[in-house]
Here is the input.
Amino acid sequence: MLIITRNLWKTYRVGSEDVHALRGIDLEVEKGEYFAIMGPSGSGKSTLMNLIGCLDTPTKGEYILNGKAVSKMNDDELAFIRNKEIGFVFQAYNLLPRATALHNVELPLIYSGNGSKDRMEKAKRALAMVDLADRINHKPSELSGGQRQRVAIARALVNEPSIILADEPTGNLDSKVSREIMEVFGKIHDQGNTIIVVTHEQEIADYTQRIIYLRDGKIEKVVRK
Amino acid sequence: MRRVWESVRIAFQSLFANKLRSILTLIGMIIGVMTLIAIVSVINGMNNYVSGTINAMGSSTFIIDKYGVITSEEDYFKAQKRKDLVAADISAIAKNCEDCAMVGGATRKIIITVKRRNLSIGGTFLQGVTPNFLEVTDYDIDYGRSFTKSDAQKRRSMAIVGPDVVDNLFPGIDPIGRNIKINGYYFTIIGVAKPKGSTFGVNADNWVVIPLTTYEKYFSNQETIVIFAKASSYSRMEDAMDEARVVLRSRHHIKYSEPDDFDMMTSEGLIDMFQNFTRIAWIVLVGVSSISLIVGGIVIMNIMLVAVTDRTREIGIRKAVGAKRRDIMWQFLVESLTLSLVSGILGILCGAGVSLLVASATPIPSSVELWSVLAGVGISSAIGLFFGIYPAMKAARLDPIVALRYE
Here is the structure.
């Protein structure tokens, strides 16, 4: 099992009140799965994504990722896990604006200490996988939205993580480009990658094998296809 | 190492991306380091110059002066009441001071106009000197001859002049043996000195010296002279000074209980005095430059805080893909270090420029000291590190979730 969460709670303190963003999430994900987390805003899907992505730790409960208990890790240990195990794709692309596509894709490898030759090779391979081999020296401002998101996907792939976490990956794109991006995800899933897509669009969720619906911090239902 | 280069690259990128802001950011540090380098080189040059000049008189030389070291108005009025030193004092000391190898003297300089036919030159310094005076100053006779004892004894109307006097009054003519006119009196030129250029903007080549005895004859409004004497050896210096003191006290009729009405200074004493003076100047100026260094550091801290805010999202991205706290910390520390080192190096170059300018415009042999360059680099990097720590820590502590959402 790649991901096991048991009774995951996340509580924020807002003023004098406790707000429970997640109220006991139990989730199991196998290697190679492709599924979506859906829910209206405030349902806790962003919070869940932050926890799965090791950007945050739960208030209560357990999270085991690839055999490692990450729920009690500190900042730097989480950074290490993110570097090795997680590839993020964000709605707003989140590329470094002044860096080339190649350099953006290299970034995770810089923090895992790879040599420059190795970095360059891997980054080029990842960019080729998203059909951007001819754009490696372009800066984000010189690329279209769809191309930017593909650079972001290449960055997520480059360090061969256990999970690729995509948070509203098509939120800034029109439907045609959205389809292209989802096809890219489909392709990399076929190569054996585990992909989790967080979205509020049913159309996007329909590309996946399993949809988890969240409401008020709990899993409302799970739909398998 | 790779990450260090990455940060250096980012620092240069943002430096060039915003040139005006960069200049304004770095200028405090640049001025601070520049002053430091310039002060050290100029003061060292001055010390060398002054000790060189004073040492040219020889370490066994001492000076007798009516005024001595004046540090207050009161001192000055007291000294003014003293008796003037005159040419006769020189011969008296020469006669009675057994341990003196040489005794000479010179008047203070007065400003006159020198004429020849319809030509004239103004602002010329006139000084009456004993023949041996020229031997202990750094005036070199270019051509012609110096004064002899008999010139002095016979109060001959002879002059040695600086090259400017020749250039203005004898264009293309050999001046030796020809006459110049000062205050209606004629003097025959017997020697011309080598050019020396100007010191602190004061021309050092526009002057005339005549024998001290001749000076007393024609310029009766003369003031006190300065006497210098050289002991027969360094070990006899104390004795020579005592003997000269006795001569002057008896000539001035000073009672046993009263203090001297003149001042005696050794060349060592003069050098010490000068170095004490420059030490104070040094402390003051280093204080000033440290203030601008600190201000420069604060400005760099400010710009780094702006950089952290500007790049909050970038920090979030880097953390999301696996940057640890220390990675972010180092990135920003290296960046502030790069900024401060760049300004340090620019400051060193500017300081070296000032030092070169001083060396070429004045006779002060100011040269950049290696230790001050090392200090400049060391201090600027220390400041960059110190003032970079807070912004870097702020960056390193950012929560990636918050940073990623930052607009």
Observations:
- The CA atoms of residues 129 and 154 of chain A lie 7 Å apart.
- Residues 3-224 of chain A form a domain with the Rossmann fold fold (CATH 3.40.50.300).
- The longest strand of chain A covers residues 17-29.
- Chain A is about 35% helix and 30% strand.
